[in-house]
From TrEMBL:
Gene3D superfamilies: Glycogen Phosphorylase B. Signal peptide: none annotated. InterPro entries: Glyco_trans_1, GS/SS, Starch_synth_cat_dom. The keyword Lipid metabolism does not apply. This is Glycogen synthase. Synthesizes alpha-1,4-glucan chains using ADP-glucose. It is an enzyme of class 2 (transferase). Keywords: Glycogen biosynthesis, Glycosyltransferase, Transferase. ADP-alpha-D-glucose binds at residue 17. It comes from the Bacteria. Pfam families: Glyco_transf_5, Glycos_transf_1. Residues 4-237 form the Starch synthase catalytic domain. GO terms for molecular function: alpha-1,4-glucan glucosyltransferase (ADP-glucose donor) activity.
């Protein structure tokens, strides 16, 4: 019988997405199926999720799940095998998965995601309708408490894996919520859920997990240092023998310029001329001048972590060197305002679309020349992988997964024909200015630029290799627990 895995995640593409976590949760089950591993994914029943479900079956009911009635629904959406926690008191709200329409976090997030995790642990213990997981895989702080509930409950022998998608988001709450978590007294302490006098959901998951994974090898190394360990480097170093850096992949069926129905014209690495129609469509959408100047794109959360303040300050420099910029994203309101102001100041050279638009993100990768990612830290990053796939050359800071996936266009790499992008360090104004200038110079050599595009498009960032690593890790844990 094939190994069965319960994945617990707060979002999953194509049902609900705020970032790369959703892409991973949506793509990894299909990749693991090729290794004989079945995955069912437990997700919250947000309105956007429930609206996309077809036929459902109620497999469990709760009269008082943290004070709320709830039902666990089994459903399939495409190839995704889902368990959906339908708890209207927790998830039927206007706004995003984690906050209201103004972006403010829901005050009861501790309860909402404790409920999700509690249900994950219940499934690990009892299964549902004849199905029981051999292993549980929890994603980020919103699901990390699953491992803690399992550790301090009857399901403690079931192997537990926690994946860190971004260590900066830890799910920290006051000590007063402990009484409401339904955990035994021994769970309070340094070896449990306590974290600097409060509660740390991610910390609780990491100290309870049988294995910890991050989404790139370099990020696994970086978070062991005080500068990027976000206060958890001591714990992570103490569990270094359980730490695995496994690079994210992308769904190459969804992200395929030769078959993408969301772009103006399809193309391949052998026929890059098809990108021209996408470029024109991109210029039209963002009201950019129609010319041959290099178009830099940004598809990102507009935050300090992503280095977007550096970009906002570098826009005049970019335009002055002859570049154009198209921005798609949302985040910190001052940064949103800075990009909108730049679009007004540089009409025809800068365009900004505040919000997120999945079809537009595909068009931008297909029509842009270079995707700019000056992150101060980046666990993996997926947009640079989409850029490589689409011939949109990544211009990135040398951190985390960006360092693992982009080969800098230095003289040796260009000469060997293996360069796939522009890599700069550190992520500061001077280095960013230099990276932009170097990109514009490289773009001026049409043959060299196309060689770099083709090298990127030949790169294999599918889930093939990464899924094999996950499968090997999962099997070793299950065999060890037998």
């Amino acid at each position: 019988m094939a190994m069965q895995v319960l994945s617990v995640a707060s979002e999953i593409y194509p049902l609900i997405k705020t970032g790369g976590l959703a892409d991973v949760a949506g793509a990894l089950p299909g990749a693991l199926a090729e290794h004989g591993i079945g995955v069912r994914t437990l997700v919250p029943g947000y309105p956007s999720v429930l609206s996309k479900l077809g036929k459902t079956k109620t497999v469990r009911r709760y009269e008082a799940l943290f004070g709320a009635s709830a039902a666990l629904l089994a459903a399939k959406v495409g190839e995704l095998d889902l368990l959906v926690l339908d708890a209207p008191d927790f998830f039927k709200r206007e706004g995003g998965p984690y906050g209201d329409l103004s972006g403010t976090d829901w005050s009861d997030n501790w309860r909402r995601f404790a409920a999700l995790s509690r249900v994950g642990a219940d499934i690990a213990e009892d299964g549902v309708k004849g199905w029981r997981p051999d292993l549980v895989h929890a994603h980020d702080w919103q699901a990390a408490m699953t491992a803690a509930y399992m550790r301090f409950g009857p399901a403690h022998r079931v192997p537990k894996v926690v994946t860190i998608h971004n260590l900066a988001f830890q799910g920290r709450f006051g000590a007063d919520v402990f009484a409401g978590l339904g955990l035994p007294p021994e769970a309070w302490g340094m070896d449990g859920v306590e974290y600097y006098g409060g509660i740390g959901y991610l910390k609780a998951g990491l100290v309870s997990a049988d294995a910890i994974t991050t989404v790139s090898p370099t990020y696994a190394d970086e978070i062991r240092s005080p500068t990027q360990g976000m206060g958890l480097d001591g714990l992570i170093n103490g569990r270094a023998d359980r730490l695995h850096g496994i690079l994210n992949g992308i769904d190459t069926a969804i992200w395929d310029p030769a078959a993408d129905e969301l772009i103006a014209r399809r193309y391949t690495s052998r026929a890059l001329g098809g990108r021209a129609a996408n470029r024109r469509a991109l210029e039209k959408h963002f009201r950019l001048d129609r010319d041959d100047a290099p178009i830099f794109i940004i598809v990102s959360r507009l935050t300090w972590q992503k280095g977007m303040d550096l970009v906002a300050d570098a826009i005049d420099h970019l335009v002055g060197l002859g570049g154009k910029l198209a921005v798609l994203g949302a985040g910190d309101h001052p940064l949103e305002g800075a990009f909108l102001s730049a679009a007004e100041r540089h009409r025809g050279r800068v365009g900004a679309h505040i919000g997120y638009d999945e079809p537009l993100s595909h068009l931008m990768q297909a029509g842009g020349d270079a995707i700019l990612i000056p992150s101060r830290f980046e666990p993996c990053g997926l947009t640079q992988l989409y850029g490589l796939r689409y011939g949109c050359v990544p211009v990135v800071a040398r951190v985390g997964g960006l360092a693992d996936t982009v080969i800098d266009a230095n003289e040796a790499a260009v000469g060997a024909g293996v360069a796939t992008g522009v890599v700069f360090a550190p992520s500061d104004p001077l280095a960013l200015h230099g990276g932009i200038a170097r990109t514009i110079r490289l773009h001026g050599d049409k043959a060299g630029w196309q060689a770099m595009q083709r090298a990127g498009m030949r790169s294999d960032f599918s889930w093939t290799h990464s899924a094999a690593q996950y499968a090997g890790l999962f099997r070793s844990l299950v065999q060890g627990a037998a």
